[in-house]
Structure formats: C-alpha cells, structure tokens
C-alpha cells in the first residue's frame, strides 16, 4: 500500500488530503504545510492526518509525494536542502499545482536530477468543494500510462476521475490551459453582455421614473438565465466542430454561419458597447482577426480559419 504525503494545505490541498483520509481511513496520510496555525491544517490533523514539520522526514517516510501549492519558489528552496533532495530519490512525485507547459517540463527535469523515480504533472479540473465527488475530474501526464496505472491511479482514485493525457509531461498543463482559456473567453463575453443588460435595464427603470435609486436595483439575472445561458449551452458542442475543421483545414466549411455574417454580428456588439458606454475591448481583437480573414479570402468561409492567425 502506498503511503501518501500531501505538500501544501491550502483550499485545494486540504480538499485532496481530506478526501484521501476519509476514503481510506486505514491508510495513514502525512501532511506538510508552510504556515503554522492554519485552520485547514488543524481540521486535517483532527481528522487523523499526521503533521510532519520537517519536509525531509516527511518525504523519507512516504512513497507518493502529492504537491498542490500556489507559489512554488519557497517550496523549491525547502525541497533543495540536502536532506530533502536525498529523500526524494526513488519517490513518485505527483504535482497538481497549476502552471504552464514549460514549467511542467522544467519541474520534471528538476525532480529527475534529484533521482525521483516517477514524476507526473497534473491538474485538478474542479473547485475544491467538488473534489472527491462524482463530478471530480483530474488530468495527469508524464512517464507512461502503464506507470500511471500501476503506481498512481489506485492510491489517488478517490480524489476524482483520472484522465491520463499523455507521456509528454507538458500535456496535462496544456489541456488545462486550453480549457481555462475557453472558460475565460466565455466569462469576458458574459461580462460584456451583462454590461449591455445593465445599461438597458437602467434606462428602462429611469423611463419608469425610478431615476437614481432605480439604476442600482436593475437585475440582469433573468435575462442571463432565460437567454444567455440557453444560447451558450446549445453552442458549446460547436467548439468540437471548430476543432475538426481546424484539423482538416476545412476553411470553406462555414457550418451555415459565414464569417462575413458573423463579422457584422460582432461589429453590432461593439457598436452597441460604444453607444451605451460598455467596455467591449475583449472582443476587439477577435473582430480584427475576422476582418483580416474576410479581407484575404472573402466572407464565405467559417470561423475556424481565424485559428491560422492565432499562431504567432
Ligand atoms: N481553488 C480552485 O478552485 C482550484 C481549482 C483547480 C485547480 N486549483 C489549483 O490548485 C492549486 C492550489 O490552489 P488553492 O486554491 O489550494 O490555493 P490556496 O488556498 O491559496 O493555497 C495555497 C497553498 O500553497 C501553499 N504555498 C503557497 N506558496 C508556498 C510556498 N512558497 N511554499 C510552500 N507552500 C506554499 C500555501 O501554504 P500556506 O498555508 O503556508 O500559505 C497553501 O497551502 C493552484 O495551482 C490552483 O491553480 C485550484
Ligand atoms: C509543479 O508544477 C507546476 C506547474 O507545472 C510548476 O510550475 C512547479 O514548478 C512544479 N513544482 C512545484 C514544486 O510546485
Ligand atoms: C512547517 C510548519 O510551519 N508547520 C506548521 C503547520 O501547522 C501546524 C498547526 O497549525 C503547526 O503546528 C506547524 O508548526
């Protein structure tokens, strides 16, 4: 049975540690934290986790070193001590800290120099409150799928459904950032939409004589719930069609939505933002790229061709 050490007891580290503890009460869990007197640390020790204040001793006594921190400079200096470095030899490190693909490759090299037997880089794809529930979902990459299945999949099964993304240690971070990029694009568009809704609702309220105080009371939730969310939900699968046309370089397939028509639509959003006093900056760059494709090839193609201009 693998003994697990959890390094980093913030919101996410505590959720991971808590799930490991409760799902397998017979197997001990060691935790290490940078800061004294964190309520999260105390609740874990109360639940049976063993707190180890010396990081080298903590590493030496365990097989799987699970890392989930926010900022890694000090953790590197803690792990760089001669005793901690020596203790790392032969261990399995699973790093669930969010980072860039390049940082994942650098971390792999750093841990390999210290004789770590296996280094996996991963990402938690849900917020802490969903860790350990049926919705929980994690990405892992590095080494081989067989090494992942043999050494890590079972001991960490309780924290969430695992997707092994590939032997390239950078692949989990890349997949994670691709999903987050899509999510933040959705958020930035939603914030523009909310701004337009607030402007219009405030005018409606003012027209009814609720001047001043009326503006503070406008509620965008009904329009977001009844219009914005259903439209977005229906369009999410469209991203797969975009991806397929990118893979096939099927630039002429407009999927029924020619770029020229879409460009006019996005220009309407930006014009409304100007008219009403809403910051539409997040969509300006997209309009510029769509216009460039239309200038080069006309307006009959599809949105996927914009991807050509994204690689700088
Ligand atoms: N929260 C989410 O919704 C979510 C979702 C998916 C992925 N993640 C990822 O999970 C990771 C952790 O996030 P979190 O929400 O747990 O953050 P958090 O609650 O702020 O916790 C940060 C943890 O990192 C430790 N830490 C920070 N700098 C350190 C250092 N230099 N040396 C040693 N320990 C250090 C903190 O220790 P101290 O207690 O000593 O400060 C704390 O244990 C991030 O990579 C994040 O992107 C979070
Ligand atoms: C863990 O992974 C992140 C993201 O790949 C990386 O930036 C960091 O340097 C790694 N190591 C530690 C100790 O956090
Ligand atoms: C290394 C370190 O600071 N460990 C602390 C972790 O939290 C516990 C309980 O809050 C402290 O007693 C440790 O000193």
TrEMBL record:
Q: Per its UniProt record, what InterPro entries does this chain match?
A: 6PGD_dom2 (IPR013328), 6PGDH_NADP-bd (IPR006115), HIBADH-related_NP60_sf (IPR051265), NAD(P)-bd_dom_sf (IPR036291), RedAm-like_C (IPR048666)
User: Where does the NADPH-dependent reductive aminase-like C-terminal domain lie?
Assistant: 168-306
> What residues does the 6-phosphogluconate dehydrogenase NADP-binding domain cover?
6-116
Q: Which SUPFAM superfamilies match?
A: NAD(P)-binding Rossmann-fold domains
GO MF annotations, alphabetized: NADP binding
Q: What is this protein called?
A: 6-phosphogluconate dehydrogenase nad-binding protein
């Amino acid at each position: 049975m693998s003994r697990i050490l959890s390094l980093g007891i913030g919101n996410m580290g505590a959720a991971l540690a808590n799930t490991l503890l409760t799902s397998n009460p017979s197997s001990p869990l060691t935790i290490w934290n940078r800061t004294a007197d964190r309520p999260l640390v105390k609740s874990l020790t109360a639940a049976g986790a063993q707190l180890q204040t010396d990081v080298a001793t903590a590493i030496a006594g365990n097989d799987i070193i699970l890392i989930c921190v926010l900022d890694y400079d000090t953790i590197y200096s803690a792990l760089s001590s001669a005793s901690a470095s020596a203790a790392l030899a032969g261990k399995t490190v699973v790093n669930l800290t969010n980072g860039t693909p390049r940082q994942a490759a650098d971390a792999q090299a750093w841990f390999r120099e210290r004789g770590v037997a296996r280094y996996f880089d991963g990402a938690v794809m849900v917020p802490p409150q969903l860790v350990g529930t049926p919705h929980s979902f994690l990405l892992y990459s590095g080494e081989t799928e067989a090494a992942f299945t043999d050494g890590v999949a079972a001991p960490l099964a309780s924290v969430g459904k695992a997707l092994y993304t590939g032997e390239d240690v950078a692949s989990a971070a890349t997949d994670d950032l691709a999903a987050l990029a899509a999510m933040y694009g959705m958020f930035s568009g939603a914030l523009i939409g909310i701004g337009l809704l607030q402007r219009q609702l405030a005018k409606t309220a003012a027209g009814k004589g609720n001047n001043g105080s009326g503006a503070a009371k406008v509620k965008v939730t009904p329009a977001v719930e009844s219009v914005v969310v259903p439209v977005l939900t229906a369009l999410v699968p469209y991203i797969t069609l975009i991806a397929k046309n990118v893979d096939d370089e099927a630039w002429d397939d407009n999927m029924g939505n020619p770029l020229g028509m879409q460009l006019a639509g996005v220009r309407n959003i930006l014009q409304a933002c100007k008219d009403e006093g809403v910051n539409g900056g997040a969509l300006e760059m997209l309009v510029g790229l769509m216009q460039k494709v239309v200038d080069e090839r006309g307006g009959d193609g599809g949105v996927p061709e914009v991807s050509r201009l994204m690689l700088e």
